[in-house]
């Protein structure tokens, strides 16, 4: 019988009563984690060293902690407004960040908030390197005795929905059963702010042993602040958009590269003439590129795309709203076969349109606007979104024929930090072994691209990071860590173009990858390739490669940035106009104080400048009437940076 409670403290007490020994907890990633319940358990266990606790989870999201200086002045008010003063930050994450987790508490994650725990010894030691599809079995291997999860309640009904996270809970229970282990205690916390998603995400309340429905007020769902899209990001997104075929399948990752891709796809569909003008300015020969000819296109979407991605996010919202994502699929292999071979009749088509899904995912994460979109959809539109197990989304096993029919002409777009000239990708960790984020589902998608007919994996990366004199290439000859091995090489692209490596020789790969390297780093790459006997000794870089410079990309896109075709925030912004100006200035300041020499020059120029700053920005940063030497220097620096980044 299911226990129904309204008090989180009572729920924590009941859990500890039901499980008298060590706690081994499984919790979903992202916003499916019940922060308040986990904090209540953490407080009790932290105070009782005789009661060990192990937590198996991923992507533990806390708002950014305000630092000092200008960053702190910007972040503190934004965090209060965006996340809410009552947002329940995860206490175990705060402890991990300071390596202060009690000795009897252990947290294992297979994916971490990007860069957030890079310097935590406790987090780094207890990271588990897993494909997303292997996470459920890894949790089962640890014999969990408790699984906690946030759920949504059906409007005007009694059922519950996994909503934001149908990814691994049910897969974990199956894995526990296969191992012959006892079923863990299942505890659900109902959050009225979670959008209701039906279909395979819906269960009866009796699925859980305990259902907690706390009274309001309810903290906001964690909202990812939408970031500005830079010139390089837009160039990458534009190149990527030309590799998508109408009637195909789309998977995208997270971040500004994905945002730029989604905006480019929307532009391709809604203003095709302007889209082609932007592409022509960026790369006049792109339409004739072999990869575009073979697997992409530039025309609007007549049939539309089917979205199938482990994570549903802001970009998918835009693509649904503008009519790019609209191709429906149904879990009926015979019907999908008839659709594929052109023999589907009117009844088949009617059923497909009535019962089919145009968007499938395993979890979702986005901005407050994204969550509102899901909540405010009509029931008919929301029925076209299916939240499924990760075992169904990230691989073909289990119902391979059906998934092959549904996922035709699939394009898997993911980001990596770095790549090698021979086609390996570095996406999750550094060469000293420290983990930045995690593998997640990236390997799953790359492998699926090689397994599906007509599918392609596209790994996107920025050509460089930093600025001169501290400019570094993200394209290496070799690197001490690999996420995707070179034998799975496929399509790579950055702001300088597309490199098609599938089936190519090592020499062909070196030439293709160096052809999209920043011009400043091409000679060293070619020299290393020749030393390694991977490139003919008499090879000479073609003259057009010298066009691979940031200033050329900036100049090509400048008219379209100026007229709003390529806005700073293509998917909407969580920052006010004043904050957007501040972000540009702070980013400029960070780049121009990255090393001692540039810092001294920038500070000197700021202190010597007598021009007035932006009053609204200075007021937002509480620097309109600075007190003390430190605040006065900050005010001068900020005013100088604001002038340097002022729009024409």
Automatic annotation (TrEMBL):
<dbReference type="GO" id="GO:0006083">
    <property type="term" value="P:acetate metabolic process"/>
</dbReference>
<keyword id="KW-0808">Transferase</keyword>
<dbReference type="InterPro" id="IPR026888">
    <property type="entry name" value="AcetylCoA_hyd_C"/>
</dbReference>
<feature type="domain" description="Acetyl-CoA hydrolase/transferase C-terminal">
    <location>
        <begin position="366"/>
        <end position="529"/>
    </location>
</feature>
<dbReference type="InterPro" id="IPR046433">
    <property type="entry name" value="ActCoA_hydro"/>
</dbReference>
<keyword id="KW-0378">Hydrolase</keyword>
<dbReference type="Pfam" id="PF13336">
    <property type="entry name" value="AcetylCoA_hyd_C"/>
</dbReference>
<dbReference type="InterPro" id="IPR037171">
    <property type="entry name" value="NagB/RpiA_transferase-like"/>
</dbReference>
<dbReference type="GO" id="GO:0008775">
    <property type="term" value="F:acetate CoA-transferase activity"/>
</dbReference>
<protein>
    <submittedName>
        <fullName>Acetyl-CoA hydrolase/transferase</fullName>
    </submittedName>
</protein>
<dbReference type="GO" id="GO:0016787">
    <property type="term" value="F:hydrolase activity"/>
</dbReference>
<dbReference type="InterPro" id="IPR038460">
    <property type="entry name" value="AcetylCoA_hyd_C_sf"/>
</dbReference>
């Amino acid at each position: 019988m299911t226990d129904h409670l309204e008090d989180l403290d009572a729920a924590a007490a009941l859990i500890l009563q039901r499980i008298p020994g060590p706690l081994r907890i499984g919790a979903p990633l992202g916003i499916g984690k019940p922060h308040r319940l986990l904090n209540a358990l953490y407080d009790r266990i932290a105070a009782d060293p005789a009661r060990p606790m192990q937590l198996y989870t991923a992507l533990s999201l806390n708002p950014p902690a305000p630092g000092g200086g200008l960053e702190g002045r910007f972040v503190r008010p934004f965090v209060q407004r965006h996340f809410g003063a009552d947002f329940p930050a995860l206490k175990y994450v705060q402890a991990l960040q300071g390596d202060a987790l009690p000795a009897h508490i252990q947290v294992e994650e297979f994916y971490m908030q990007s860069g957030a725990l890079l310097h935590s010894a406790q987090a780094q030691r207890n990271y588990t390197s897993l494909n997303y599809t292997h996470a459920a079995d890894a949790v089962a291997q640890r014999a969990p005795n408790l699984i906690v999860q946030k759920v949504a309640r059906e409007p005007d009904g009694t059922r519950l929905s996994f909503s934001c996270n149908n990814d691994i809970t049910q897969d974990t229970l199956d894995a526990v059963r296969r191992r012959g282990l006892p079923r863990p205690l299942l505890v659900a916390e109902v959050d009225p702010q979670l959008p209701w998603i039906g279909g395979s995400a819906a269960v009866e309340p009796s699925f859980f042993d305990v259902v907690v429905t706390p009274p309001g007020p309810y903290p906001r769902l964690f909202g990812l602040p939408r970031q500005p899209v830079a010139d390089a990001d837009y160039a990458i997104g534009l190149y990527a958009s030309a590799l998508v075929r109408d009637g195909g399948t789309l998977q995208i990752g997270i971040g500004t590269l994905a945002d730029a891709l989604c905006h480019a796809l929307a532009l391709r569909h809604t203003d095709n003439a302007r889209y082609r003008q932007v592409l022509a300015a960026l790369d006049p020969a792109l339409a004739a590129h072999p990869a575009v000819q073979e697997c992409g296109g530039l025309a609007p979407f007549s049939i539309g795309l089917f979205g199938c991605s482990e994570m549903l996010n802001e970009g998918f919202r835009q693509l649904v709203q503008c009519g790019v994502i609209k191709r429906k699929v149904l879990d009926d292999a015979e019907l999908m076969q008839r659709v594929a071979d052109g023999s589907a009749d009117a009844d088949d088509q009617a059923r497909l349109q009535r019962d089919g899904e145009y968007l499938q995912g395993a979890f979702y994460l986005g901005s407050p606007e994204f969550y509102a979109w899901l909540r405010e959809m009509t029931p008919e539109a929301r029925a076209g979104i299916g939240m499924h197990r990760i075992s169904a989304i990230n691989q073909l096993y289990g119902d391979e024929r059906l998934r092959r029919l549904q996922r035709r002409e699939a394009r898997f777009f993911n980001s990596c930090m770095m790549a090698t000239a021979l086609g390996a990708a570095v996406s999750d960790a550094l060469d000293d072994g420290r983990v930045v984020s995690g593998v997640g589902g990236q390997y799953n998608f790359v492998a699926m691209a090689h397994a599906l007919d007509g599918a392609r994996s596209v790994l996107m990366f920025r050509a460089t990071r930093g600025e001169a004199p501290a400019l570094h290439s993200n394209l290496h000859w070799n690197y001490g860590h690999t996420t995707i091995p070179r034998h799975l090489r496929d399509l790579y692209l950055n702001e300088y173009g597309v490199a098609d490596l599938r089936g190519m020789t090592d020499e062909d790969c070196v030439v293709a990858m160096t052809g999209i390297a920043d011009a400043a780093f091409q000679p060293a790459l070619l020299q290393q390739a020749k030393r390694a006997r991977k490139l003919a000794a008499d090879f000479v870089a073609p003259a057009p490669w010298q066009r691979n410079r940031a200033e050329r990309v900036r100049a090509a896109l400048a008219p379209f940035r100026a007229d709003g075709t390529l806005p700073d925030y293509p998917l909407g912004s969580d920052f006010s106009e004043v904050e957007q100006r501040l972000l540009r200035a702070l980013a400029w300041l960070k780049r121009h104080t990255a090393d001692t020499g540039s810092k001294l020059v920038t500070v000197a120029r700021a202190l010597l400048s007598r021009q007035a700053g932006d009053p609204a920005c200075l007021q937002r940063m509480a620097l309109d009437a600075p007190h003390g030497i430190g605040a006065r220097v900050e005010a001068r620096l900020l005013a100088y940076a604001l002038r340097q980044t002022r729009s024409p």
